Amino acid sequence: MTARVLVVDDIAPNARLLEARLVQEYYDVKMVTDSREAVEVARVWQPDVILLDVLMPTMSGYEVCNALKDGVATAHIPVIMITGLERPAERAKGLRSGADEFLTRPVDYDLLLARLRGILRLKRLMDEWRLRGAAATALGLRVAQPSDVPHGLARVLIADDLAARTAAIGACLRDAGVLVSVASDEADLLAQTTEDRFDLILISLSLLDGDPLRLVARCRARAETRDTPLLLIAEQDERDLMIAALDLGANDCLVLPLDPDELLLRVNNQIKRKFYEDTLRDDVGSALRLAVIDPLTQLYNRRYLESHLQRLCEESSIGGFGLFMIDLDHFKAINDHHGHAVGDKTLRGVADILRQNLRPSDLIVRYGGEEFVVVIAGLSDEAAASVIAEKIRVTIEGMIVERTIRVTASIGLTIGDAEAVRVGDAADSLLARADFALYEAKRAGRNRVVAFGEVSGRIISFESGARS
User: Any idea which fold 146-287 has?
Assistant: First the structure.
């Protein structure tokens, strides 16, 4: 896994040593020895991760990290702090300033590389969601920001079979307002995560009963826990287990003895990240829905129709489908005489009729204005399609809006099959055929169904805007 790594250290030999080791692993490395330049270099170069020394002149690593997290262009870049300071308070200060990890010198390169791999996996996932979130922003939605905080109480599951350790961790989390559950073995964890959803799972690497690595792997493989952050609790002599668990997909690790401040900071960071990811995923889902759903009728819109038709036409084993174009007659008069609210109610009523008279597998689209398009799979001849279209026409004719307003519709239809889609721009061609049949229904007096095959021999010039 290659990536761009920015090394920030005012002592050049330390920076070069890190650079040499990272280059051996095929990372693209840039060095900065002046802490004042670090933020600007990060903004311009956009590294995937930053390795940041703490003790530097002019600006400390804490100050640099705070500046990075305050910048819109750099807030998403993960930071690993590296320092000779070993006091728990220093680690807590680094995590509080926004660092993802705090490692002490001399650097354990195997552990550093394992943390790099895990952080980069997460960053690439988050980058993908952030890019998709641009669609939500373009549609005017408020997109989640990393600074957003979770609403309500977080739920944490502790997987550990040592009662004293579980009690100490649980008490610390409960005092901070976290809802805590405990799983004493793998079967218990799997059962609880099947029934409930947790914001974080703490897994002890000192499980007396079971294999903690298998537990990490199973959490990452199961749909119920695939996206749940995993925080490892490790003894100091469990380095190899910790590296293996990080490579299996664990998100973070806490080395005992327990420091309450560090525990709460790591737990809070993981919960905030999950909240951000979940909210961003929901934002993206809303954006995608807005992109293809008409907000008035809750039907698919024209953009979705075009891509759906194109896929149908590209199917090599196409079995035929009916394409109906439905236009409400004299709809402008409804808006002019009764107001747009009544017009909207009419459109929603027609949408409901189409849903009630068609199968869930049939595609119903608000094509624009008072026009609807229906695509029905499995139709291979116009006679069968005309029967369905006539039923729709009659049902719309029987609809009454606001007690007195009656509505009628003209319908043009065509059949899409292997022959129809063989030449030309198939999707546009089929829509043009249905539209031509619809024009003929309007020209013949409206409130009727016309199939393209009935009129295909005629050559008539018309303006699509002339229909009403």
Answer: Rossmann fold (3.40.50)
Kind plus residue range of the DSSP H or E element containing 52: strand 49-53
| DSSP letter, residue 265 | H
In this structure, what DSSP letter does residue 330 have? T
Q: How far is CA 373 from the centre of its chain?
A: 29
Burial (CB < 10 A; 0-12, 13-18, 19+), residue 117, is middle
**For the purposes of burial, counting CB atoms within 10 Å of the CB of 317, is it exposed (0-12), middle (13-18) or buried (19 or more)?**
exposed
**Do residues 442 and 408 touch, judged by C-beta distance below 8 A?**
no
Strand partners, 290: none
- Location of each CATH 3.40.50.2300 domain in the chain: 1-107, 146-287
Residues forming CATH 3.30.70.270 domain(s) in the chain? 302-466
* Residues whose CB falls within 8 Å of the CB of residue 89, separated by 6 or more in sequence, listed in order: 261
Longest dimension (CA), the chain: 88
Please tell me the distance from the alpha carbon of residue 356 to that of residue 395, in angstroms, as a whole number.
10
**Within 13 Å and on the Cβ side, how many CA atoms surround 369?**
16
Report phi then psi at 343, rounded to 5: -60, -45
**Fold classification of 1-107 (topology level):** Rossmann fold (3.40.50)
Cα–Cα distance between 218 and 225 in angstroms, integer?
Answer: 9
Looking at domain 302-466, does it have CATH number 3.30.70.270? yes
Catalytic sites, residue numbers: 370
Positive or negative torsion for Cα 453, 454, 458, 463: negative
- 241-277 pLDDT, tens digit per residue, is 999 999 999 999 999 998 999 999 999 999 988 888 8
What's the DSSP call for residue 293? B
d(CA 267, CA 174): 12
In 19-57, which positions are buried (b, 16+ CB within 10 angstroms) versus exposed (e)?
beebeeeebebebbbebeebbebbeeeebbbbbbbbebe
What is the distance between the alpha carbons of residues 227 and 245, in angstroms, rounded to a whole number?
16
Single pTM value for the model: 0.69
CA distance 330 to 397: 13
pLDDT tens readout for residues 376-435: 987 878 999 999 999 999 999 999 999 899 999 999 999 987 565 554 457 788 899 999
